[in-house]
Design goal:
Elements lengths: L222 H14 L6
Length: 242
């Protein structure tokens, strides 16, 4: 293939190389590959600032124009924001403090009177004799408690039987007659209070005798029986009054 022009615009018909007919001489060849962009050259130095030109003369002031007629008053605009408070003035100097007045003389303290004499303690009166104690009325005889049988071994608890129907409530028995109250002995006259004797030494702590054990009630039927047995054992041990 022949290429023409060869980059010479002045000779458009000039062929750079022969080409066989019928290929025309001047054919536009393909565009060449774009070459790489060359590196950016260094920035040139900044030129020196030029000299400032001379200031020209001020022109003459023109004549003042005539004052135009006063226009109508415009609407009142909104009130502007309140300005900041002014600076507080400096505080004036404090006046000099006057001199303290003279302190008056303290008056004399009166003399303290002498303490009066303490009177003598009178003698303690004699303690009168104790009056006779009246006779104690007779105490009714207490019936003898029956002997407590030995507690047998507790049998095995049987299976709970079916609950039977509740029977009718029996009639309440008549209250027994209340025994006559014995006569109260006459109260003797109060004797004079005797002198307080010295306090005796504290005796040894008494020994508490435990009551005999009582088996727990096993059913509704023997609650009263076991409770009475417990009370009887406590009386015998001295834990309850008869």
């Amino acid at each position: 293939m022949a290429y023409c022009n060869c980059g010479e615009p002045s000779q458009p018909d000039r062929c750079c190389m022969p080409a066989p007919p019928p290929v025309p001489c001047c054919l536009q060849g393909p565009a060449g590959v774009t070459g790489p962009v060359g590196a950016t050259g260094p920035t040139g130095a900044t030129g020196a600032a030029g000299a400032v030109g001379a200031t020209g003369p001020t022109g003459a002031t023109g004549a003042a124009g005539t004052v135009g007629a006063t226009g109508p008053t415009g609407a009142t605009g909104p009130t502007g924001a309140t300005g900041a408070a002014g600076v507080v003035g400096a505080t004036g100097p404090t006046g000099a403090t006057g001199a303290d007045g003279a302190v008056g003389a303290t008056g004399p303290t009166g003399a303290t009177g002498a303490a009066g004499a303490v009177g003598a303690t009178g003698p303690t009166g004699a303690t009168g004799a104790d009056g006779a104690v009246g006779a104690t009325g007779p105490t009714g005889a207490t019936g003898a408690d029956g002997a407590v049988g030995a507690t047998g071994p507790t049998g095995a608890t049987g299976a709970d039987g079916a609950v039977g129907a509740t029977g009718p409530t029996g009639a309440t028995g008549a209250d027994g007659a209340v025994g006559a109250t014995g006569p109260t002995g006459a109260t003797g006259a109060d004797g004079a209070v005797g002198a307080t004797g010295p306090t005796g030494a504290t005796g040894a702590a008494g020994v508490v005798t435990p009551a005999a054990a009582v088996a727990e009630a096993s059913s509704v039927d023997n609650i009263v029986e076991q409770f009475n047995l417990l009370l009887r054992n406590m009386r015998e041990a001295g834990l309850l009054e008869s």
